[in-house]
Design goal:
Blueprint lengths: L17 H12 L3 H4 L4 H20 L21 H8 L3 H9 L12 H26 L5
Length: 144
Amino acid sequence: MAQRGLRMDHVVHDVAPASAWLLAIAAWVVPGAGHLLQRRWLRGALLGAAVIGMFVAGIMLGGHLFPLLGPFDEGIAVLLQVPPTIANVGSGVLYLFCLVTNSGFTDHAELATYEYGNTFLLVAGLLNYLVMLDAFDIAAGRKQ
């Protein structure tokens, strides 16, 4: 009796080298570093400048960063801060610098550009995640 269904004997497991993982970590920590370490100078400089520029613009526009550990007295509403915190952490050393110096975490809701600043900060972190994945894929040989 023949068995019907998907055949799994043709699946190839592509294992990324350890160097690709190290480059991904470097790309997360310092925006653009993953490409610069692979000697992709223009791409690394442009992507790093885009992430850093968006982060700095977000701070200058009065945006605020979300803390790693939010106030616990808010109950379950604190879960709403998890996605933007993950986005902010994507900025790597920029976020860590602000965390250590305790800057960028205060609300400036009185500024007209406050929401624009928040958006710039969130997008900077999310863009750096994409830059990190791009550097990883290049190092793993999945992309040119």
